[in-house]
Amino acid sequence: MSVRRLRCDTPKGDTVDMRVGVIGAGGIGSDHLRRLRTTLSGVEVVAIADPDPVRAAAAVRGLGATIEASGEALIANERVDAVVVTSPGFTHADLVSACLAIGKPVFCEKPLAITAHDAWRVVQAEVATGRRLVQVGFMRRYDASYQALKSVLDAGTIGQALVIHAAHRNPDVPKWWTTELTIKDSSVHDSDIVRFLTGEEIIASTVLRPRTSSRLADVQDPLIIVFETSSGILVDVELSVNIAYGYDIRAEVVGETGTAALGDGGLVTLKHAAVRSTDLPANWRQRFTLAYDRELQDWIDATSAGEATGPSSWDGFVATTVAEASHASYRDGTRTEVVLPDRPVIYR
Ligand code: ISE
């Protein structure tokens, strides 16, 4: 099946928006649906697939979109030009592969896949098409504070980066959460942003187990992951998933002549009744609202112009490969090397 032109001029001279189907209308999927409907330009939602019929009906209300029986049916829908995958992580690799099999562009929330093997299968499927059709939802790259931090590093203002201290703190997680998910679902953001900030690959991961919080049974919380980059930068990432006080993302780069740190994400500092306080985001959907808007608009614009240019299947594969090394280190208590194949040409 040839890839449909995603934006075309009708005989009247109008421009037809890219018609998108969304697989998964819960959690971040409901957020992305809202921004596709109300905030972003050049896009029209024409189909929804979700196993919960109540959620699917609520998602299409007022949209004029169809409800598809499955993700596969949505992908096959001729009226769907491009697909947004916001279903649970374990479904991502197969759904993205189904899109690639018929040449349909796809935005896939992280992780691209739960295993490096499945992520590599997606990479190979995309390489076979000869085109960049996939963008992966590493939204931190679109966050203004992370982009400003990268600008400081790229300018050499503090010299070479030597050490990065980071924290990725969630106020809470669902009852079914596991330590493996902390590594394979959460830390993929941390390893990807290290690659984005430094422009380097991660060559090893070591996971340390601090004293664990009594607040979450059967989960090692917090975790410390130490990434090593190809030039020797050490990155210590504290991952806390049940810290209660709020959603807090931190990064401080220690350079040769100074340091550079993320803003704390607060919008206002309040001084009142002899107390100074700054607001904190309640969760990641609030902290990264603008970054999500920008990543999806970037995907719409680039896909409409012919090829995805954002975080790629290769980036998704590397993040999952690093996560597998981190999980091996957590399990075996050893430093685990990250071994990557050559990067295919279409991702260079
Ligand atoms: C969640 O799935 C996300 O993607 C958030 O950005 C991250 O902060 C959180 O830890 C994940 O569980």
What does this entry look like structurally?
With 348 residues, the chain is α/β, with parallel strands linked by helices. Helices cover 35% and strands 23% of the residues. The protein contains 10 helices and 17 strands. Strands 14-13-9-12-11-10-17 form a 7-stranded mixed sheet, covered by helices on one side. Helix 5 (116-129) links the parallel strand 7 and strand 8 (134-136). The longest helix has 20 residues, at 179-198. The radius of gyration is 21 Å and the shape is globular. Residues 1-5 have low confidence and may be disordered. Bound molecules: (2R,3S,4s,5R,6S)-2,3,4,5,6-pentahydroxycyclohexanone (ISE).
Short description:
With 348 residues, the protein is of the alpha/beta class.
What is the element layout, followed by pairings?
Layout: E1 8-9, E2 15-16, E3 18-23, H1 28-38, E4 43-49, H2 53-60, E5 66-68, H3 71-76, E6 82-85, H4 92-101, E7 106-108, H5 116-129, E8 134-136, H6 144-155, E9 161-169, H7 179-198, E10 202-208, E11 223-229, E12 234-240, E13 248-255, E14 259-261, E15 269-272, E16 275-278, H8 284-287, H9 289-305, H10 313-332, E17 336-337
Parallel strand pairs: 3-4, 3-6, 4-5, 6-7, 7-8, 9-12
Antiparallel strand pairs: 1-2, 9-13, 10-11, 10-17, 11-12, 13-14, 15-16
Helix pairs in contact: 4-5, 5-10, 6-7, 7-10
Bound molecules: (2R,3S,4s,5R,6S)-2,3,4,5,6-pentahydroxycyclohexanone (ISE).
